[in-house]
């Protein structure tokens, strides 16, 4: 116990040296720190949301593309680990970039990251609606339509309210929800794989190396045309189904001030969450692929938006009770993922406000004397995603031509905003890693518990190259008729949303006048 107290005192001393006092409760254990990162990364949420994008675009072979973002993000996690160990402060990317480069630079990195987090909360909490509706319909004989805007709004409001109340009661509660969510993730990945294997796979292992004709429009499950090119066509889109999963590990840094022995544990939690996510994702995706029906029509349904994972499970598992249990696990995975992201975003808001870097900073920075949580930042972390959810009501029935680009019909403004979510995260990551590289060229030497030593520069460069290449792959406009434009970035829409977020940032920056109260250390 004395060792733990000594460690906490050392962390508080380090925090003080960086210009801050300990206001939040340092209560998160090693496993809880890992769990916050792991449940934000959430293999189940990612795979249930993106499986069809991957296999529909490139066929079963898409599973092996996972190696690219996992390897790339591992280098990123190493850089973040150094930064998180050297600067174990709430607000992670914002604080890392602020200290590494400048206050203004850090503000903009944090702005894009914060907005992407808030968008992701809306995406996750609205994404659970079909699964929650299905279980309510099954258990209570209800007839809920998950596509109705009113259904999406009511369920999202209910989820945000529950997540916010629980998060307000303390970091310990957030840690418990995340810890339970981690066990659910393990059950929902290993458990489903075992159940599907017991039911009997429909294909041999060699099936995972086939494309099933995905590169040709006539045999592509999603009806997109890669002009018979797999590597330079289908793979470039399908890899995004993995790239959209393997982030979130950085949230261990967002809750650093509530983590015991943070300088040592945060870097470990980041790497462990990423590697655990890779292992569980591979096992679940492989099991789902091997369980797809072997007949052409059944395979096409299983790998298209008309069927997907629910169709695979319904054809492979005869027990409705077991299917409902799996569905319940999916719902909780979405819930714990949203809860962890809200926790991370509120710490980012708190970190900004404590520096006087947002409007109404004193109010936003308020910490509950009872629960030791940034209560007003948490409320903002619920209100803003709820406002974003309202955008589901803006859905044009026909294409709208705006200058040089076309906004596609039947695509809600919320979907357009969500398309920014992942690219916004990657932009913030890219800028943070670039900031670390700039700091190294200026002579910065990491001195936390975790350092890369002489390998730091080369690791930094590799991480930056990966992020630049993947970011371009995400946002590159290629026309609405192209697979990328049709399935993900809506041609120019994602880039334009990013510009709008930037313009909004200019307004907030002008009102906040950041930097006047922030630490200069």
UniProtKB/TrEMBL annotation:
Keywords: Membrane, Transmembrane, Transmembrane helix, Transport. Pfam families: AA_permease_2 (PF13520). The keyword Cytoplasm does not apply. Its main location: membrane. The chain crosses the membrane at residues 34-56, 62-84, 105-132, 152-171, 183-208, 228-249, 270-291, 311-338, 375-394, 414-438, 458-480, 492-512. One of its GO terms (molecular function) is transmembrane transporter activity. It is found in: Membrane. GO terms for cellular component: membrane. Signal peptide: none annotated. It is a multi-pass membrane protein. PANTHER family: AMINO-ACID PERMEASE BAT1, OS04G0435100 PROTEIN. This is Unannotated protein. It comes from freshwater metagenome.
